[in-house]
Specification:
381 residues, alpha+beta, 3 domains, twelve-stranded mixed beta sheet, 10 helices, 18 strands, globular
Length: 381
């Protein structure tokens, strides 16, 4: 079964939870959250430890030992990790789906999305792949799917965490895929919201999915101005100005602190439980903050999502009394420094198209529009 092709996850490899017991030891730095438990004994091998931190749905490269007598001793598989259990990994490569024995893994790590067009690292990724990457940086409380579409629900906390991400192939005709998504949200007592994307300046109505939603009474923007057009901007971490001796000190916490969360509530409504789950739900994140030197109160903050090769900035906010004093730039400079020091050459942010000041701020820091998205929802009568 070394590198055997397979055409569908087997019963024993349909998920990465509940199949392994015990506690993990010896995981590699930066390989993931280390949340997967590994059984002692037969499963406690170097190959198991190497693959423990890989995230389901992430793009990975696996160096794999081949059977005796093969022309080479090992080969590499690159693709999406779709399933894992105590004994096997299943990886979708460009050409096939392969089932790999975890004990025979020699090396493994997460890697950025593949390049699909020319340009610098922040420009080469496709809109579809970047949307999927950003979704991993803002994980919902409840997650489902229909084909490649990602269904997300988080008790109403943010549009991103409560909408169907329309990406790739839903594996069903569009109308049936919409039916499935609507029922999924109805079962959870939530309205169905759809997030669709396209190139900068795209007309949503030209997309078949959007046309079908419009026929059902959905509205582009769902009645919210900030949802009409959201810009996804990307830039090189190397282009962001570095911190200077005059820069305010920036704290970077790996754990969500209560005062950070309380201050975050000044920019958007907190949904107890859901907000904390979304903010801490990625494979890796840092909570950045700047404090007033006199009161020690947080006057500026942002959340940094950490991905292989990418860093995402969410929720950048500065207290009104301290705006236009360089606090926002200082926080972004600190985020870019973390990115540069951890092999993340590309950065992304999302900003409403009607926020002219916000767009100008990011443009001045070297970010450009990668693509756009909009939400579709039914508005109340």
């Amino acid at each position: 079964m070394n590198g055997d092709p397979t055409h569908g996850p087997t019963d024993e490899t349909h998920s990465d939870t509940g199949s392994e017991t015990g506690s993990e030891t010896g995981s590699e730095p930066g390989s993931g959250t280390g949340s997967e438990a590994i059984a002692l004994g037969a499963s406690d091998t170097h190959g198991h430890r190497l693959s423990a931190g890989l995230a389901i749905g992430g793009r990975v490269v696996v160096r794999y030992r081949l059977a005796e007598g093969a022309e080479a001793a090992a080969t590499d598989f690159v693709g999406e990790l779709v399933a894992r259990d105590a004994d096997f990994l299943i990886v979708d490569t460009k050409t096939e789906r392969v089932k790999l024995i975890r004990a025979d893994i020699l090396a493994a790590k997460a890697v950025p999305p593949p390049a699909s067009r020319p340009g610098r690292p922040h420009e080469r990724v496709s809109a579809d792949d970047l949307e999927k990457l950003m979704a991993k940086g803002w994980q919902p409380v409840d997650r489902g799917g229909v084909g490649d579409w990602v269904l997300r629900a988080s008790d109403g906390f943010t549009g991103r965490a409560n909408s169907a991400l329309v990406v790739g192939d839903p594996s069903l005709p569009v109308d049936k895929a919409i039916d499935f998504a609507e029922k999924w949200y109805s079962d959870r007592g939530r309205p169905a919201i759809f997030q669709v994307h396209g190139e900068a300046g795209f007309d949503p109505a030209e997309q078949p999915t959007v046309a079908a939603l419009l026929d059902r009474g959905y509205e582009i923007g769902g009645g919210q101005e900030s949802w009409q057009r959201v810009l996804v901007m990307t830039g090189p971490s190397a282009a962001v100005p570095p911190l200077t001796e005059q820069s305010a000190p920036v704290t970077a916490d790996a754990e969500l602190q209560l005062d950070w969360l309380t201050t975050y509530g000044q920019q958007r409504s907190i949904v107890p439980g859901a907000t904390e789950a979304v903010l801490t739900g990625s494979d890796g994140q840092l909570f950045l903050s700047v404090r007033d030197p006199e009161s020690a109160a947080i006057i500026g903050l942002a959340r940094l999502a950490i991905h292989p090769g990418w860093a995402g900035i969410f929720g950048l906010w500065v207290h009104p009394d301290h705006r236009r004093t360089g606090v926002a730039t200082t926080i972004v400079s600190a985020a870019a420094m973390v990115a540069r020091e951890n092999n993340m050459p590309a950065m992304y942010i999302q900003v409403s198209g009607d926020n002219a000041a916000g767009v100008a701020f990011w443009t001045d820091l070297g970010f450009t529009v990668h693509h756009e998205y909009t939400y579709l929802a039914k508005t109340s009568a």
